[in-house]
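Reopening: structure tokens for the S-adenosylmethionine complex, inputs below.
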Amino acid sequence: MSTDPHHAPSGHASHHTSGHTGHPGAAPEDVAMAELLELDAAVLHTYTAELTGWLAGFTDRAPTRILDIGSGPGTGSFALARRFPGATVTAVDHSPQMLHRLTRRAAAQGLSDRIGTRQADLDREWPRTGPCDLIWAAAFLHHLGEPGKGLARAFAGLRPGGLLAVTEMDFFPRFLPDDAGAGRPGLEARLHAATDTRPPADWSGHLAAAGFRPVATRPFAIALAAPLPPETNRYAQVCLRKLRSHAGALLSADDLAALDTVIGSGGPLGVLQRQDLTVRTTRTTWVVRKP
Ligand SMILES: C[S@@+](CC[C@H](N)C(=O)[O-])C[C@H]1O[C@@H](n2cnc3c(N)ncnc32)[C@H](O)[C@@H]1O
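Re-run output (same inputs, fresh job):
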């Protein structure tokens, strides 16, 4: 898998720690990551709707109990609650900051009775919820120290016939035209080549070993062009900053200077002002069933 926002060393890379969305003592890297994930969901909402609609086609009955593991701020939980109106969703994460944001948003959207949270380190414990109809794991499985153990717990937590949906990002989103107007053409491609070092994930073997039956695997190639959601410019800035935080020793001085021009908040070449952005990324989802 290529650069994962959550694997990236953060903190100094993303400075947007607006107090009203955090809670006292929130780790800055969690605040930054939560913002990135919420922007991701806002910009890619059509993809998420397509994904959950596709997933709904594999259910044998309308889900009533859903578990979102490694939920982050719950963008998956909200999408699932909308897609499956008869379901309650339990979002599990080890980060109090992520769950705090999720709870606030659930209240704001009148969904507190349908979306609940549990704080847990899923490497060590698994929440008791009763048999689930659907478990959702987005950009999460690779965080587990022993994914096989996590998948065995997911298997045990599903009812027979229940589904597990695993989604991973194949490569980090790209936004800029080949010639970004700053530095030499190919700036963003060089940034990705230098920082996207993880091979694409393939969870099929792990899933089969845990006892799941394959249902479907689908790579989603996302390519958005104008008119883009209003959050796109900020999303691009946050993503580029994240990659920039890895790139210090990997790119030439002129590329780093050009990148700083693009990431900076001022000037016509700055990503917050640009009208020439597109959004390109791919994500793969594996859907499997407990027999
Ligand atoms: C890349 S984020 C993905 C969040 C969300 N699923 C999404 O797609 O927006 C990974 C999440 O997994 C959580 N996480 C990582 N390791 C964990 C663990 N051992 N137990 C529980 N949560 C964990 C992190 O706090 C983070 O919120």
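The first helix runs from residue 28 to 43. Residues 1-21 have pLDDT under 50 and may be disordered. Marking as resolved unless the reporter disagrees.
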